[in-house]
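Sequence, please.
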């Protein structure tokens, strides 16, 4: 119903308009540079390791009454999950 209303309300276009319709769409997947991906993952794991070390150090140094595993274990779990899913998806 609305399509017909739009056709009535809009001006007519020439015959060239119908010929310029999209005939084909090609989608190219970007190639993944395996070496660059591995470097990124290794760098991220180094940062995660530094963060875990800093948390354990800070909790011990400032004598915070919290077990550092409450912070580091979820970090390591989700980082491992993301890494596994990333490499399974490639």
């Amino acid at each position: 119903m609305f399509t017909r209303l739009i056709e009535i309300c809009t001006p007519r276009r020439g015959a060239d308009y119908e010929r310029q319709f999209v005939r084909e769409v090609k989608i190219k997947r970007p190639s993944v540079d395996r070496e660059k991906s591995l470097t990124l993952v290794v760098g991220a794991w180094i940062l995660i390791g530094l963060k875990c070390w800093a948390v354990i150090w800070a909790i011990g140094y400032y004598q915070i009454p919290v077990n550092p595993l409450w912070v580091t274990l979820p970090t390591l779990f989700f980082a491992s999950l993301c890494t596994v899913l990333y490499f399974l998806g490639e």
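The longest helix spans residues 34-61.
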